[in-house]
Amino acid sequence: MDFSVPEELDEIRAAVRELCSQYPGEYWRALEPDRYPEEFVRALTEHGWLAALIPEEYGGAGLSLTAASVILEEVNASGCNAGACHAQMYIMGTILRHGSEEQKRGYLPKIASGELRLQAFGVTEPTVGSDTTRIQTTAERVDGGYVVRGQKIWTSRALHSDLMLLLARTTPLEQVERRTEGLSTFVVDMRAAQDAGTMTIRPIRTLMNHATTEIFLDGVEVPADALVGEEGKGFRYILDGMNAERILIAAECIGDGRWFVGKAASYASERVVFGKPIGANQGVQFPIARAHAAIEAADLMRYKAAWLFEEGAPCGAEANTAKLLASEASWAAANACLDTHGGFGFAEEYDVERKFRETRLYTVAPISNNLPAVARLKAASERSSASCSIPRPMKTTRERRSLSGHSGRCSGGWTTCWTPFSTSGPAVPTFSRPLTRSTSSPRACNSIVSQMPKAVQSSGSSKIRHSARTSCPCAGESS
After folding, report:
1. Domains in the chain, ordered, with CATH?
2. For a FRET experiment, which of 58, 156, 284, 390 has its CA 20 to 30 Å from that of 359?
3. Stretch 60-80: mean pLDDT, rounded?
């Protein structure tokens, strides 16, 4: 296994770092609280960095996802904010992998040159959140195309984008066998829709400068050739983009983490209190060192997820794991950096408070870290059940520490995975149900108690937790 860094990645880092040096902290502070970094995004586009994943035949650089992740990592590691433009990298992948040749030639060269911006990703809705299969935005077929009605929220950069990749339901939920069916993906001309008065975009002011919005679609007309791929298959297409999204976001968090660690280490070496640098104190050193270690670990998972994606292998669990580890590592680094700076960490001129706010987003978006955790647990349970269908007690400390456990199924269709309540205590059964079930079945679930190890049944700390979730806990995990 070769862990050496290819020379071309070092060259990319150096070139991106040089470009970002032209946009120091003063530039970003002047944009607060809600101005979009037009000049910065334009520079990235002109240098070809936002077209990294577009093949050369369509005017892009034709780089790998690993290389693209390095670009965004270095943007954030340089003190800039890749969140202003990162979506274009992963959104266009849906067109590239599933669009028609006419769509590719019509959109990709213009996106690569900057003539068009594809920065908006219309998936999340206010009433369903991450329960993507229950979205209520509809696309009704009419002569010549579709009419779209509904609402989207947290659609960032919509006011600074020409096109939006939109997910809408084309077949009612009650008419499909699986809830992942009947969803379709469209490329929507946002300028035309706004000019027609059928699309309204309202900015949402947030903790950080992120240019996010809510969008109201009141009879938006889209032509038939705006449909990406096959009608009703959009959910699968969106998953491809989500996996790339999670990997790229992980890279940004790793970049943030490196910035925080570097900033904290530098300040700790220079700041003298009681006659010596504060960095000489282990109480200052340890949080920074732990943050650095966590970032390095997340970095390895980022590279693994990117490699799997490039190989065309399933990577949903790895992509979400990379995002979770990286976002938590960057948040730990942010806190260590702020603590190291003390009161000066809250001063705008140090940029710590700005980056602190920016990196905090990624433990919640584009997906809450709680959801990938559930997805990984589910995936681990499924892997273990392939080799052992009969649950048994976890007897050793090592077994209790393992989250993979063993799974079983009750007559009501629920599954269970024994997971540790503590490293020394008895295992706790956690129940979840298949995606096809929409109502709870406590009585049926009681039947699985008889399958539980007696030690677990009689344990006072064992609890049966029924999940009310009726949808995929993390869209990316099922790919």
Report:
1. 238-371 (1.20.140.10), 387-478 (no CATH)
2. 284
3. 97
Cα 374 to Cα 431, 432, 442: the distances in Å are 11, 10, 20
How far is CA 306 from its chain centroid? 13
Single-letter code of the amino acid located at 365: A
Name the packing angle between helices 65-77 and 282-310 (round to 10°). Answer: 150
Owner of token pair 């699968």: 236
Look at the block and give the residue holding tokens 């705006």.
Answer: 226
Judging by DSSP bridges, how do beta strands 163-169 and 118-122 pair with one another? parallel
413 backbone φψ class: left, alpha, beta (φ>0; ψ -120 to 50): left
User: In angstroms, rounded to a whole number, what is the distance separating the alpha carbons of residues 303 and 310?
Assistant: 10
Whether 369 contacts 327, CB under 8 Å: yes
User: Which residues are within 8 A (CB) of 290 and not within 5 positions of it... i.e. 6 or more apart?
Assistant: 332, 336
Strand partners, 276: 273
Give the per-residue pLDDT at 370. Answer: 85
Count of residues making up the chain: 479
Average pLDDT over residues 353-357: 98
119 Cα distance to chain centroid: 15
The structure tokens listed for 256 are: 């943030």
pLDDT in tens, 206-223: 999 999 999 999 999 999
The fraction of the chain above a pLDDT of 70, given in percent, is 77
Distance from C-alpha of 398 to C-alpha of 422, rounded to nearest angstrom = 12
- In the predicted structure, residue 448 carries a pLDDT above the cut 90: no
This prediction's pTM:
0.78
The Cα–Cα gap between 335 and 287 comes to 9
Query: 463: pLDDT confidence band, cut at 50, 70 and 90?
Result: very low
Give the whole-angstrom CA distance, residue 237 versus residue 310: 16
Q: What span, in angstroms and rounded, lies between the C-alpha atoms of 449 and 444?
A: 10
Two tokens, residue 166: 């939109």
For the ranges 7-16, 51-60, 238-247, 414-423, the lowest mean pLDDT is seen at 414-423
By the 8 A CB rule, do 254 and 326 touch?
A: yes
Cis peptide before 33 (omega within 30 of 0): yes
The Cα–Cα gap between 348 and 352 comes to 7
Q: Is residue 423 exposed (0-12), middle (13-18) or buried (19+ Cβ within 10 Å)? A: exposed
Q: What is the pLDDT of residue 136?
A: 96
| 449 pLDDT higher than 70 | no
Name the residue with tokens 């035949």.
57
d(CA 133, CA 128): 9
Tokens 């109480």 found at: 283
Q: Which 8-state DSSP code applies to residue 4?
A: P
